[in-house]
Write a structure and sequence with these properties.
With 119 residues, the protein is an all-beta fold. 0% of the residues lie in helices and 61% in strands. It starts with a strand and ends with a strand.
């Protein structure tokens, strides 16, 4: 089993910054892609950013130039640095990871962390 534990959410004013962290633990050979998703009240979950095992990244248009995803493979941790935040960034943010165990891949989600941006 694999656990993803997120931290770093909270309340921030518009224009401010927050950094989310997500640490993976459990039994696996390696971690493939790691990503951050978010879900605002009444909306569908959307992918915010993704980073591959080779450190290739991709972002949602709404956060490009403001958010940065990174990872520390030695710590099995992915980060999301959020700058110049807007009220529309308010959502529950979820960590996602694809781990490799043997010849198989497994997907896991974190429990979510609330980010609230006040205007």
């Amino acid at each position: 089993q694999v656990q993803l534990v997120e931290s770093g959410g909270g309340l921030v004013q518009a224009g401010g910054s927050l950094r989310l962290s997500c640490a993976a633990s459990g039994t696996f050979d390696s971690i493939n892609a790691m990503a951050w998703y978010r879900q605002a009240t009444g909306k569908q979950r959307e992918r915010v950013a993704i980073i591959t095992s080779g450190n290739l990244t991709d972002y949602a248009d709404s956060v490009k130039g403001r958010f940065t995803i990174s990872r520390d493979n030695a710590k099995n941790t992915v980060y999301l640095q959020m700058n110049s935040q807007k009220p529309e960034d308010t959502a529950v943010y979820y960590c996602f990871a694809t781990v490799i165990r043997g010849l198989l891949r497994y997907n896991y989600w974190g429990q979510g962390t609330q980010v609230t941006v006040s205007s």
